[in-house]
Write a structure and sequence with these properties.
The complex is a heterodimer of chains A (279) and B (279). Chain A is mostly helical and 279 residues long. Chain A has twelve helices and no strands. In chain A, helix 2 crosses helix 12, helix 4 packs across helix 7 and helix 8 crosses helix 9. The N terminus of chain A is likely disordered. Chain B folds into two domains: 152 residues, D-Maltodextrin-Binding Protein, domain 2 (3-Layer(aba) Sandwich); 113 residues, D-Maltodextrin-Binding Protein, domain 2, CATH 3.40.190. The chains are: A mainly alpha (279), B alpha/beta (279).
Chain lengths: 279, 279
Amino acid sequence: MMGRGKDGRLLGRTGPGDALASGMAVAALALLAGFISLPFISLLLWTVSENSWRAMASPVAIDALLLSIKTTSVSMAIILTVGTPAAYVLARADFPGKKIVETLVDIPAVLPPSAAGIALLLTFGRFGLVGQHLEVFGVTVTFTTAAVVIAEVFVAGHFYVRQAAVGFSGVRRDVEEAALVDGASRFSAFTKVTVPLAFPALVAGAMMAWARALGEFGATIVFAGSFRGVTQTVPLAIFAEFQGNIDAAVALSVLVLGFAFVVILAVRYLTAKTTNHEN
Amino acid sequence: MPFLHAGWRVLRAAVCLVVLVGMSGCGSSASEGDDGGGSSGGEGGTLTVLAASSLTDAFGELAKTFEEQNPGVEVRQSFESSSTLLTQIQQGAPADVFASASEEEMDTAVEEDLAEGEPQVFVKNREVVMVPKDNPAGIEGFRDVAKPGVKLVLAEEGVPAADYALEILGKADEEYGAGFKKDVLSNVVSREADVRASVNRVVVGDADATFGYASDYTPDIRDRVEVVPIPPDLNIVATYPVAALKDAKEPDLARKWVDLVTGEEGQRVLKKWGFEPAV
């Protein structure tokens, strides 16, 4: 409310030049919206005109989609289980080296995924730092579905942990403490009070992480390789199909785009709900 | 190929644009800069060569020779699978020379009137099986590739190196009995974008074996990779044709490049990098 009032006064002062400025701002938004929607429209037009809906049901597409659902589900289970308590510690605790840990959590978000793939290969590959010891027990990670999950967790984990930490710091300490005074254990105060209050933020973070895991390409193709039904997720299948069967590549792209759209809408809705809560 | 129609071209062109802008954008500005730098007439300019990825090292050396022989000229090269390069040329990639690892791709270029003059076969190559130096799967002879549990990596479908491998396996099927090819293919754990990528899987040591060209056994990987020969009666002879392109911006330089690789100096360098002379 205050911001709006301030803006109002500014508007009054600048006068005529402002019309041009806001006109340009609107034009910029239109440009951005057009720029983003055109590829989306192109995909749909292609799908309709070439009738490539059928390609969505091709064995390659189905295998890829099932694998993507499977791997992102496992990845999310891992991210939620490890990420939730980790995010709570980041939000609540002060400890030496916290800044370093925070930076570490952020790194996968700024690292190009292909670089992440190389790093993972040198870690979990057959001659990797960890991989060579696993090899002794007959465990190989590269070229397996597990490698896909590792890549997804590595690349997407950040998006959940970050958002969850913000959500947890938004929960007032006195509310938590009130629950403790009422006789709740620390654990049940966390699960019954803190988590529900931070829930919209947790869901929003989880969705961003899921979308990121679903779109994971660079780290997966470098670290896990590409093989149908084992490591070839939707993005890798799009890349492979692009060499020959363009209809399948388009169909898979439409599927992923549709999914991304749903996720963004859901996140928007939840974010709006969080804001209402605070008010 | 039913997908090779106008709409497909448009869509794929959009993606290829990224590659083309990267090459031509810098290429043309560089050539303008060179021209402005004083040299005139036939001197200066940028020669753009699209070559099969197996030619990476040999053409890399020849580019230096070419630049020495033609002062002021800059050679830009893009190494990818011949099938990918053909698509780029079909999309109007601003390139001067195409060197393919298979006559199939060159034939298509000629049929579609993209090549200038008759393509010349300039080298031959053979396929070999490559295994990591410590040979974890114990592949002593070609037949061992079919052993259960061998982690085999191939290039993507449609890449000449992989197509040749399938041809070899087809022949082996007749000699070793049906099932050999099937056994080998059931060992495939990943399909890579081009032949160099699949060889790198063995260099890193995560794959037990791959099919590559004899020329891919380059000096810098010899301490990490071992070659298992394929019986000559089963092997194929890969013939590499080279041609100047119709849309070449530097037709004179393109012709000079073809002369270089088919000439004595070019053949010497190619032989040094493991190719068999074919001129």
